[in-house]
Fold these 4 entries.
Entry 1:
Amino acid sequence: VQLQAFGGGLVQAGDSLRLSCAASGRTFSRYAMGWFRQAPGKEREFLASIGWSGGSTYYADSVKGRFTVSRDNAKNTVYLQMNSLKPEDTAVYYCAARQHGPYENGYWGQGTKVTVSS
């Protein structure tokens, strides 16, 4: 499966932004999907994941209550709705897909950059 994340940009603190991740292939619905980010000089950070059916979601404490992950299997797309953005949310955001094992061993898309100004 090939993934492409988009929707990043420059926003102000407190704004909202929705990222999308489009997947190619007919088996998108078989994959759990995750969102990660990497800020300059920092390690990659898990943000959120969603099960193949959309019924199971998990969030990092750092974004719980502000970010929402969802998916539309008919459109082969997973979303990350980000509200109340903070300057510390500035990073390159990535989506990933996995069937078995950790995301690190799955499929990754090119990131989309999000910059939050204060």
Note: The mean pLDDT is 95.
Entry 2:
Amino acid sequence: QVQLVESGGGLVQPGGSLRLSCAASGSILSFNVMGWYRQAPGKERESVASIAGSSRTNYADSVKGRFTISRDSARKMVYLQMNSLKLEDTAVYYCNTPTGVRLNRWGQGTQVTVSS
């Protein structure tokens, strides 16, 4: 069974940076496409970024140019480098596979709080 564990969140000032990590366990075939999602208080969960294979990436318009998704397939790790953080980036961040999203299976996420 696929397990995903997110880490790296924290409290940061506007304009700051954080790097989130996602550790995956299970069949590597399940991880061809990986995504980062976030859910802010009172809002629905939204897609932030995704990566297919080793380099095909896609970003939400709200984070383009600020966030970078990457992966280390050998270590089954996915990362989200977040720069120039804004107040509106405050949310719980999750990583997931398309199957996990479809089955509504989520990890515990990692809290990112941007505050001055």
Note: The longest strand covers residues 18-25.
Entry 3:
Amino acid sequence: QVQLVESGGGFVQAGGSLRLSCAASGSIFGINAMGWYRQPPGKQRELVATITRSSTTNYADSVKGRFTISRDNAKNTVYLQMNSLKPEDTAVYYCNVDYIVSGNHWGQGTQVTVSS
């Protein structure tokens, strides 16, 4: 059974840092891309960053130079290191995992709140 468990969200002041983690289970045949998306209050869900199985990364322009996505294939876990956080980074952050065979799945979301 596919399960994604997110952790690491919380409240931080502007300029601070947080690290999100997402552990994926239920992968018998492996995982392709992994990524993070976010949904700010009153807005649509948007891409933050993605990483392929071979660790090629892609970032939204708004987070380039501040956020770093990484993954541990042995642990089926994806991370998002968020530095120099801004109030506009406030959102619910969702993990997204593309399983080989099982397809695409979303985590339950974790709240990140950045105060000014």
Note: The longest strand covers residues 31-39.
Entry 4:
Amino acid sequence: VQLQASGGGLVQAGGSLRLSCAASGGTFSRYRMGWFRQAPGKEREFVSAIRSNSIGRDYADSVKGRFTISRDNAKNTVYLQMNSLKPEDTAVYYCAADPPGSRSWDYWGQGTLVTVSS
């Protein structure tokens, strides 16, 4: 499975961005998909995840109410809509895939940089 993240960029605090992650080479509709981020000098952290049926969605407390994860199984793509961005959201954002039966994030994209200026 190959994952290609895109949509990062420079935005002012309070602004919005939408990240996309396109998957290929696997049965996307069966995977749980997630977003993680890693800020400079910090460990990678969980941001959000969505189950294959789109019903189950999880968010880190730090992004609840501001970020929304969604997916389009017809397009093999998962999205992260980020609103009310804060400087502390600055990080490289990675998408990941958890295949059925795995219970772990087996596949990772290359990351896309989000920079939020104050």
Note: The radius of gyration is 13 Å.
